[in-house]
Amino acid sequence: MVLCEADHKNDGATLDRWLANKKPASFESWIANPDNFCVVAESEGVVRGVGLLHCSGEVRLFYVSPGYQHRGLGRRIHSALESHALPLGLPKLRLESTLFACKFYEALGYIPAGAEKSLFGLLRVYPYEKPLQPNSSIHATAFGGA
Protein backbone atom coordinates (compact mmCIF):
# COMPACT_ATOMS: atom_id res chain seq x y z
CA MET A 1 0.00 0.00 0.00
CA VAL A 2 2.83 2.39 0.87
CA LEU A 3 4.55 1.72 -2.43
CA CYS A 4 1.50 2.68 -4.47
CA GLU A 5 0.67 5.99 -2.76
CA ALA A 6 1.14 7.78 -6.08
CA ASP A 7 -1.58 5.51 -7.51
CA HIS A 8 -4.21 5.66 -4.76
CA LYS A 9 -3.21 9.05 -3.27
CA ASN A 10 -4.18 7.75 0.19
CA ASP A 11 -7.83 8.18 -0.77
CA GLY A 12 -9.80 6.26 1.87
CA ALA A 13 -12.60 5.14 -0.44
CA THR A 14 -10.11 3.92 -3.07
CA LEU A 15 -8.07 2.04 -0.48
CA ASP A 16 -11.15 0.46 1.09
CA ARG A 17 -12.34 -0.88 -2.27
CA TRP A 18 -8.86 -2.00 -3.35
CA LEU A 19 -8.15 -3.83 -0.10
CA ALA A 20 -11.66 -5.27 0.46
CA ASN A 21 -10.64 -8.76 -0.70
CA LYS A 22 -7.12 -8.69 0.79
CA LYS A 23 -8.17 -10.42 4.01
CA PRO A 24 -6.85 -13.69 5.50
CA ALA A 25 -10.00 -15.64 4.54
CA SER A 26 -9.75 -14.47 0.92
CA PHE A 27 -6.07 -15.34 0.72
CA GLU A 28 -6.71 -18.79 2.21
CA SER A 29 -9.38 -19.46 -0.44
CA TRP A 30 -7.00 -18.34 -3.21
CA ILE A 31 -4.34 -20.75 -1.97
CA ALA A 32 -6.85 -23.59 -1.64
CA ASN A 33 -8.09 -23.12 -5.22
CA PRO A 34 -6.38 -25.77 -7.39
CA ASP A 35 -6.50 -23.35 -10.36
CA ASN A 36 -4.06 -21.05 -8.56
CA PHE A 37 -0.33 -21.35 -8.00
CA CYS A 38 1.04 -19.25 -5.15
CA VAL A 39 4.62 -18.38 -4.32
CA VAL A 40 5.50 -16.89 -0.96
CA ALA A 41 8.90 -15.38 -0.24
CA GLU A 42 10.02 -15.02 3.34
CA SER A 43 12.99 -13.67 5.20
CA GLU A 44 13.64 -14.34 8.87
CA GLY A 45 10.26 -16.08 9.15
CA VAL A 46 8.33 -13.07 7.83
CA VAL A 47 6.51 -12.99 4.49
CA ARG A 48 8.23 -10.40 2.30
CA GLY A 49 6.58 -11.10 -1.04
CA VAL A 50 3.85 -13.08 -2.74
CA GLY A 51 2.79 -13.92 -6.27
CA LEU A 52 -0.34 -15.72 -7.43
CA LEU A 53 -0.85 -17.16 -10.91
CA HIS A 54 -4.20 -18.44 -12.17
CA CYS A 55 -4.15 -21.36 -14.62
CA SER A 56 -5.55 -18.98 -17.28
CA GLY A 57 -2.21 -17.13 -17.30
CA GLU A 58 -3.41 -14.18 -15.26
CA VAL A 59 -1.07 -12.98 -12.53
CA ARG A 60 -3.70 -12.06 -9.96
CA LEU A 61 -1.49 -10.98 -7.10
CA PHE A 62 2.08 -9.72 -6.93
CA TYR A 63 3.54 -7.87 -4.00
CA VAL A 64 6.93 -7.23 -2.44
CA SER A 65 7.12 -5.56 0.97
CA PRO A 66 8.52 -2.05 1.32
CA GLY A 67 12.24 -2.22 1.93
CA TYR A 68 12.59 -5.50 0.00
CA GLN A 69 12.47 -4.12 -3.54
CA HIS A 70 15.62 -4.02 -5.66
CA ARG A 71 16.99 -7.15 -3.98
CA GLY A 72 15.89 -9.64 -6.63
CA LEU A 73 12.94 -10.92 -4.61
CA GLY A 74 10.34 -9.83 -7.17
CA ARG A 75 12.34 -11.36 -10.00
CA ARG A 76 12.60 -14.67 -8.12
CA ILE A 77 8.86 -14.70 -7.41
CA HIS A 78 8.13 -13.98 -11.06
CA SER A 79 10.59 -16.63 -12.22
CA ALA A 80 8.78 -19.23 -10.12
CA LEU A 81 5.41 -18.17 -11.56
CA GLU A 82 6.76 -18.28 -15.10
CA SER A 83 8.37 -21.68 -14.52
CA HIS A 84 5.00 -22.99 -13.39
CA ALA A 85 3.22 -21.46 -16.41
CA LEU A 86 5.49 -23.00 -19.06
CA PRO A 87 4.46 -26.66 -18.57
CA LEU A 88 0.83 -25.55 -18.67
CA GLY A 89 1.38 -24.52 -22.29
CA LEU A 90 0.26 -20.96 -21.67
CA PRO A 91 1.16 -18.66 -24.58
CA LYS A 92 1.49 -15.60 -22.35
CA LEU A 93 1.08 -14.16 -18.87
CA ARG A 94 -1.30 -11.25 -18.27
CA LEU A 95 -1.70 -8.77 -15.45
CA GLU A 96 -2.97 -5.34 -14.53
CA SER A 97 -0.28 -3.09 -13.10
CA THR A 98 -0.43 0.03 -11.02
CA LEU A 99 1.52 2.95 -12.45
CA PHE A 100 4.17 2.45 -9.76
CA ALA A 101 4.88 -1.13 -10.89
CA CYS A 102 4.85 -0.62 -14.69
CA LYS A 103 8.63 -0.22 -14.98
CA PHE A 104 9.22 -3.39 -12.98
CA TYR A 105 6.97 -5.45 -15.26
CA GLU A 106 8.49 -3.89 -18.38
CA ALA A 107 11.94 -4.90 -17.11
CA LEU A 108 10.61 -8.48 -16.88
CA GLY A 109 9.57 -8.39 -20.54
CA TYR A 110 5.92 -7.38 -20.25
CA ILE A 111 4.45 -5.15 -22.93
CA PRO A 112 1.40 -2.86 -22.75
CA ALA A 113 -1.75 -4.73 -23.79
CA GLY A 114 -4.46 -2.09 -23.88
CA ALA A 115 -5.58 1.22 -22.54
CA GLU A 116 -5.42 2.15 -18.89
CA LYS A 117 -8.66 1.83 -16.99
CA SER A 118 -10.17 2.91 -13.73
CA LEU A 119 -10.33 0.12 -11.16
CA PHE A 120 -11.25 1.52 -7.76
CA GLY A 121 -11.91 5.20 -7.17
CA LEU A 122 -8.71 7.03 -8.07
CA LEU A 123 -6.76 3.85 -8.87
CA ARG A 124 -5.88 3.32 -12.53
CA VAL A 125 -4.52 0.03 -13.85
CA TYR A 126 -2.51 -0.74 -16.94
CA PRO A 127 -2.93 -4.07 -18.77
CA TYR A 128 0.28 -5.90 -19.63
CA GLU A 129 1.17 -9.23 -21.14
CA LYS A 130 4.32 -11.24 -21.58
CA PRO A 131 4.66 -13.83 -24.33
CA LEU A 132 6.12 -17.07 -23.00
CA GLN A 133 8.84 -18.99 -24.76
CA PRO A 134 8.08 -22.73 -24.52
CA ASN A 135 11.74 -23.70 -24.80
CA SER A 136 13.20 -20.99 -22.56
CA SER A 137 15.41 -22.10 -19.71
CA ILE A 138 14.01 -20.43 -16.61
CA HIS A 139 15.71 -21.43 -13.39
CA ALA A 140 13.67 -20.69 -10.28
CA THR A 141 14.88 -21.03 -6.76
CA ALA A 142 12.38 -22.70 -4.48
CA PHE A 143 11.68 -20.52 -1.47
CA GLY A 144 8.17 -21.41 -0.44
CA GLY A 145 4.72 -21.54 -1.90
CA ALA A 146 1.70 -23.69 -2.14
Give a quick account of the main beta sheet: strands, pairing sense, barrel closure: 4 strands, antiparallel
Structural class: alpha+beta
Q: What's the domain count?
A: 1
Radius of gyration from CA coordinates = 15 Å
CATH superfamily: Gcn5-related N-acetyltransferase (GNAT)
Shape, please?
A: globular
**Portion in strands:** 25-35%
Under CATH at level 1, the class stands as Alpha Beta
Low-confidence stretches: 136-146
The number of helices is 5
Share of helix, binned: 25-40%
The CATH architecture assignment turns out to be 3-Layer(aba) Sandwich
Mean pLDDT, all residues: 82
Give me the strand/helix succession. Answer: HHHEEEHEHEEE
**CATH topology value:** Aminopeptidase
* Strands, count: 7
Distance between the ends: 24 Å
Can you tag this structure with a few keywords?
three-stranded antiparallel beta sheet, four-stranded antiparallel beta sheet, 27% helix, Aminopeptidase, 7 strands, 146 residues, 5 helices
